[in-house]
Specification:
By secondary structure, this protein is of the alpha/beta class. The chain has two domains: about 100 residues, no CATH class; about 160 residues, Leucine-rich repeat, LRR (right-handed beta-alpha superhelix), CATH 3.80.10. Helices cover about 30% and strands about 20% of the residues. The protein is built from seven helices and twelve strands. The strands form two sheets. Strands 1-3-5-8-7-6-9-10-11-12 form a ten-stranded mixed beta sheet. A two-stranded parallel sheet has the order 2-4. Helix 1 crosses helix 2, helix 4 runs parallel beside helix 5 and helix 5 crosses helix 6. It is elongated and about 60 Å long. The protein starts with a helix and ends with a strand. The relative contact order is 0.09.
Length: about 270
Amino acid sequence: MSPEAMVTCISVLTRLESLSLQFQSPRSRPDRTDRFLPQLTRTLLPALTCLDFKGVAEYLEDLVARIDVPLLETTFITFFNQLVFDIVQFPNLIYRTERFTVFDQADVVLDSYSINITLSPNGGSMNSIKLELAIKCRKIDWQLSALAQVCNLCLPTLSSLERLSICDSQYPPPDWQDDSHDIEHTQWLELLHPFATVKGLYLSKEVALRVASALQELSEERVTEVLPALQDIFVDGLEPSGLVQEVFHKFVTARGRQVSSLPVAIHS
């Protein structure tokens, strides 16, 4: 069923509050050759508050280009992995949804099957207003690359994010033995890049060393290019002395020389 046919079906359901649309494989794609959709008249879904989608990015793009959901509160999006995410309409949907302007924190979780980001207001993901996006892939470098693409396309519409948490799930944990530190440095920096307004960075122990090593790769002239508003770094189980503390200290020192008026503190 094409996105156009789907919207035609649900357009008559004016009391529809929740829509779940899930595909079993990435082979289900919209039948179009031009990735740039023409200007479409959007169908108003006046009661929809929850959208749950699993499939390829192109299908979601075609779907959200055709709908207007002013009362949307909760969104769960799961993408199958792909090399390039051409996402234009989904960020527009975020921008048009008034309740999504209250997001001020982002929580990223890596596991052995996917990478997930949840955007929510102050109070965490238990709040009813949230946007959760997951990308199904196993290798760490694929996870980081995919989420970095999506975040760089979607997050510039959100200028209120002040808290960023990145951690690894224990059930099931990601395969850290499968990552390449040389490749990963660049990918971690690309992932952090769109979080320009974040003041507090919260990291699990496994993630902290990798993020610290990536930040250390920045030359002193570029230390303000990533997380320019950062004020505090919180590391789970941070030891008073150790490799993580040492590597972060080098970044903080270099940052202080560039922006002495905005010091960065490290906390356990």
